[in-house]
Amino acid sequence: MSVLKEVLDANLQYVSEFGDKAQLAMPPARRFAILTCMDARLDPAKYAGLSEGDAHVIRNAGGRASDDAIRSLVISYKLLGTQEWFVIHHSNCGMEFFNNELMGDLLESSLTTAALSDKGFVDVGEGPGSSEGKYINWLTIADQAASVIEDVTRIKAHTLVPSSIPVYGFIYDVATGALLEVTEATKIGVAS
Ligand SMILES: [Zn+2]
């Protein structure tokens, strides 16, 4: 069965059980937002106990505080009233397995999916690739706790973010499902 059909079948099932969710308000009922990684093993609704309508979940590769993530967070507070934010990176994140230079080289070699070997990602595709990848900051991660601290620091220091918003820093452990606090990040993220 194709993924397209699987998704549409699953949606039909969801619609049949949709219940009264049409009544949900647009602003998140529990007034918080989570910035986290797109990794398929992470399900914020499950690891943080969310139902539809509860919270904003902003996801990108690494859960990094990119300009676009900050755009979403500012909208989340300014227009939709969230009052507390979480930055949640995770163990065994794919963003730890490459850096800007390698990604630029892989894309320059080919646009095809690379292989993950013992030595990291290696390109196995046929060209042509593109040098465009060298102009992007891929926001890779060298140290999980350090990246959480860096992102909480950037969010808290941003001129569009009021100091009254607490930002909590966590690492999700893919081996256990536990959220482990990065206390230094949460300390930096304290509301004032
Ligand atoms: Zn990740």
Spatial ordering of strands, largest sheet: 2-1-3-6-7
Number of helices: 6
- What separation lies between the terminal Cα atoms? 53 Å
Instruction: Please write the string of helix (H) and strand (E) elements.
Output: HEHEHEHEEHEEH
Q: Per DSSP, what share of the residues sits in E-state strands of 2 or more residues?
A: 15-25%
CATH homologous superfamily assignment of the largest domain: Carbonic anhydrase
Q: What structural class results from the helix and strand content?
A: alpha/beta
Helix content: 25-40%
Give a description of the structure.
The protein is of the alpha/beta class and 192 residues long. The protein has 2 domains: 11-96 and 139-188, Carbonic anhydrase (Beta-carbonic Anhydrase, Chain A); 99-137, no CATH class. It contains 6 helices and 7 strands, in the order H-E-H-E-H-E-H-E-E-H-E-E-H. The chain has helices at residues 3-16, 44-47, 67-78, 100-109, 144-157, 183-188, and strands at residues 32-37, 56-60, 84-90, 115-117, 120-122, 167-172, 179-181. The strands form 2 sheets. It has a 5-stranded mixed beta sheet. It has a two-stranded antiparallel ribbon with strand order 4-5. Strand 1, helix 2 (44-47) and strand 2 (56-60) form a beta-alpha-beta unit. The longest helix has 14 residues, at 3-16. It binds zinc ion (ZN). Zinc ion (ZN) binds next to loops. Residues 37, 39, 62, 90, 93-95 line the site of zinc ion (ZN). Its cofactor is Zn(2+). Pfam families: Pro_CA. Its EC number is 4.2.1.1.
